Amino acid sequence: MASEDEVWKPGSFTKKFSWGTRSDGLVQLYEIIKLGFADVMQDTRRDDFRHRVRTANRPDYIPINFFLFNKVMNGVDYLVADELVFQALNNNHTPRFDKLALFAFNFSFVGKWVGARSGQRRPALWAYHYIKDRVGEQLHWDPALVSADDIQRFVQADPRYTAKTARKLATNLNYLYFLGRLREFSEGRIERWWVDAVFLALDRLIEDRKLDGFDIPDSQYANLLYQSGFQTLSGKRSLEKELAIKHLITLYVACGGRDRFNDDRVSEKTALELPEIEWFVANDSRPVGAVHLTNPNILKNIPRVCAMLAQYVAGFDVVDADQLESFNAEEFIRRKTISALENLRAQNVRPTMSAEELMKLTRER
């Protein structure tokens, strides 16, 4: 397991990285991921990724050492195609991607590669603890109080930080927090990037355990998230988010975890019970949305091959690709309410008391 007890070293994060203008967000990272994975949603060799990026004269050390997840298979280094890569390859660049990518950076689970030092498995623990301990627990998610000076004071006061200076790290990190819209993490309500972050955190945590030879049972996923600090690290906490995690874990498990990106494995899982799955996928390969009926803010885009598992196994409703980006929670509730009333009428179900009688009964109690 990746340890939090390692010393904090800034590493290559203090080097210059061309993020672009302040209005660009993390579009440079977005484009590098698409280029490095060649727009293919599968694990790719680290060397191949680096070659593609360098051929385009783009820097690669920040993306592969701080944002993506690495693993070694049969002595070969690979970069893992997980939720962050899925979002880059299947959507246009938006602030939603920027916030998910910033969460991935702060979460700081990046795996191993041949020749990596032990501290590189969690290379940005200084950012992880600044967000978790300082911003989340001390500042109660008031991003207006985040600054380069505050970051510098925090890391220099911690004995685990071993570099001689913290100013360059602090200014670089503060700029990254502006580009990644850290200020918007203070929302207690559920947003789509946060829903994606639940899946990304599970992808990273499970892959991290596999590096040490451990398979984590589904029943431990909620505890795994809690122990990782996910709830504090991913923004202001709320009851709505706490309740949503249970539903999202159910969806994650139903879709097969990271196997949701493997069409053959998901198809094999569903083919016997849901034989129409092959036609459903062949007809349109774009991702679909899975929305929970108890809270339409719980909206997750998933590979189309997982749609029927989401509906019949996890209890989610499915939103087609054409409606996904324009999805309106209030309209969804209205349509579902009308449909439910029509079903009741079709079954000849009628109320046994008037609205006035119901109100009177409620007041009496």
Structure description:
- The protein has 365 residues and is mainly alpha-helical.
- The protein is 51% helix and 7% strand.
- It contains 18 helices and six strands.
- It has helices at 27-36, 46-55, 61-67, 83-90, 95-107, 125-138, 148-157, 167-179, 192-211, 221-228, 230-233, 239-254, 263-270, 277-283, 307-312, 321-324, 329-346, 355-364, and strands spanning 44-45, 70-73, 76-79, 288-292, 295-302, 316-319.
- The protein has a three-stranded antiparallel β-sheet. The chain has a three-stranded antiparallel β-sheet with strand order 5-4-6, with helices on both faces.
- Strand 2 and strand 3 (76-79) form a beta hairpin.
- It is globular.
- The model has no long low-confidence stretch (mean pLDDT 89).
Oligomer: single chain
Task: Please count the helical segments.
Answer: 18
Distance between the termini: 54 Å
Class by alpha and beta content: mainly alpha
Number of strands: 6
Radius of gyration: 23 Å
Within the largest sheet, what's the order of strands?
1-3-2
Strand content: 5-15%
What level of helicity do the residues show? 40-55%
- Overall pLDDT confidence: 89
Shape: globular
N to C succession of SSEs: HEHHEEHHHHHHHHHHHEEHEHHH
For the largest beta-sheet, the strand count, sense and barrel status come to:
3 strands, antiparallel
* Low confidence ranges: none
